[in-house]
Structure formats: C-alpha cells, structure tokens
Amino acid sequence: MPLNDPITPALLADPEIFQQNRLPFHAHFADQTSPEMPLTVSLDGEWAFRYAENLTAPFTDWDTLTVPGFIQMQSLQKPGQPYGAPHYVNTQYPWDGHEKLHPGEIPQDYNPIGEYQRSFTLPESWASCYLRLNGADSTAAVWCNGVYIGYTEDTFTPAEFDMTAAVHPGENTLTVQVYRFSSGSWLEDQDFWRMSGLFRSVELFTKPELHLEDAFVKQEFALDFSSATVTFDCKVSGAGTISVVFNGQQQSAEVGVPAEYDSGVVFGKGEVDAKAVDAGLKELAGRLGIGHLLSALPDKLSIGERQRVAIARALLPKPELVLADEPTAALDPVTAKNVMRLFTELAGECALVVVSHDHRLVEENGFRCLRLDVDGGDGSINTTLRG
Fold this sequence. Notes:
6 helices, 387 residues, seven-stranded antiparallel sheet, single chain
C-alpha cells in the first residue's frame, strides 16, 4: 500500500520538528470497563517487517519481527545479522568515525529504517480510535490505510495519535516506520546501548463518553512543614460525574463538555499529617550519615552528600521496586559499604536492582549478580550469573 507524505531527510534533521499530530503528553492511567466492551486492544506480537540502510536505499523483502523488541537484538538471531547489531558507545556519538557531522545534520549513508506493518479489525462498538506507541527508538512515523497520521521523536516517552478519521469498519492496515537517527539523537547521547525499533508495547484504544484526559497532583506545604494540602487537577472530556477518593474521603463534581483541553475540575483534599514522614526521614538520613545535614542548603552539599540525599528521597516512600544505577559512584569506600549494607537490609522489603561497575562491592553484600562483559569487536554480551 503506497504511503502519502513520506518522511524526508530534512524533517528528520530539523531540531524544531519533533512531532506532528502527536497528542499532548499526560499522566499514565487506564480506563476500566466490562470485558464485553474493551477500551484497549494490544497490537503486540508478530508484525511484517522490512529494512533499508537509509531513506534512499531499497527495502529488503518482507520478513517478520516481534513487537515489542529491538530490531538489532532480533537481527542477532538471524543468519548474517541482516538488520545490524547492538552498538555500544559512551562519550562519543554513534556516527563518529563513520560520517563527519555537525549539529543540525544526521547520518545520510547509514540511517537504517525499519518498516513495520500489520492489520487490525476495528471493534464495532468503537466511535473513536487512537494509537499509542509506548517506545520507539529514535523516532517514528505512522500511517493508517496509507494515510499519514503523525510523527514523533523522544524515544522513551509514549506517543499517542488520533486515527479516527483514517480507520473504517472491518480490517485496517497500520504502518510504522522507525528511523535509527534523527535530530533527537544529538540529545540522547549517553552511556548506553544504541538500538532501534518498537521496543515497547503498541496499543489501540478508544475513549468513553466521559474521559479523564489528564490528572495533576499538587502539594502545598505549611510554612513549618507540619501539614500539606493535596490538590487534584483533573482534565476531563465529555459530560458526567467525576470523583476523587483520597485517604478514604470522596469528592465529586458534575462536569460538562470542556471548551478546551485544559479546562477541568480541581479537587482539594484536606490536610495530611507530616510528622510520620519527618520521623522516617530523620531515621533514614541517620543511617546514611547525613542526619546533620537536614537543614543544609543544596549548594552547601558535596557531590557524595547530594547522592546520599537522592538515595534517601528514593527510599523514603518505601517503594515496591528500587532501581539504583551506580549508587556508590561518588562515595568514599566506607560510605559506599554503608549504603550497600542499607540496600541489603531493604532487599527483604522490596525488589531491588543495583547497577554498578564495582562488581566486588555488589557481590560482597550477597546480591545475586548478573555480570555483563562487552566484547570490543562485535558488541556482543557475555553474561555470568552468580549467587
């Protein structure tokens, strides 16, 4: 099926164009209704796939790839690795040594395109149809039944599009092109593996007649931090009753059809006692060796002290999952061991994942370790499981 409005190199390279027809970002939540009328349909699974080295190169024959998944990781499982391999770089850009580029330019010779395609049947009860790409690296363009829907950069932020005008009853064809490099690639230059593709789930969804478009929770603290007022700013489309339940208290309001997306209803929900939070903070700060710094200003703290403050802030809400990326990198050996000892104590209370270059420090504290060794030649990963 021919695609109208094809993507051009100029658009990919333009830093002022990072989206077209993408819906506004919002808080993540899901509508719930009866199983007989689902509001979300997953498009995860096998997709038709073809590949080109750049915007002017011919596409390969059609193949199949799994969504979600990185193109290069699945390429490793195929003879000859036809769609490239994972590429690890640290401080340099991934095109350094291959093409000489200046800011505002993107690779022309090697900027692979992965074109995904699959069909879907529009549920009969749906009056609207939206697409959600939960993750596409580094940028993606969407067509439905050959009609251009939109464009998005920002690899790790979900992108949503309204496809209502392009779909029809029965079977429809969805096409997504993913481009490995774009203007956003200049901003996503970090210490990580460079891969591309639809690496998170893809979904279709519709909206009920009364729909919560967005919710923003705000807190206003008393001057002595003894209490806080919590406010729920709800952006709503449609007409009906919306309610918020907080600390066992419920507030409701009647809403009409908003004139603008940003109109809505605001709920203020009482006061929350902050004494328990304060006691928990003091106890945690003491264990991290920063109890004497609770009243210090941020610019008076050393890098290591700031890191321990960040650890305290992350642990204070008692989360079910903690992801700690190099938590001891800026700490002296004694403090680093104390932090790891604290993590060991927490391991029985929550799921804990620690990423560190110092495998000895991690192993000494009894963690189950997965060690990744990167071969310099082909970028492959060797894993060793310990514990």
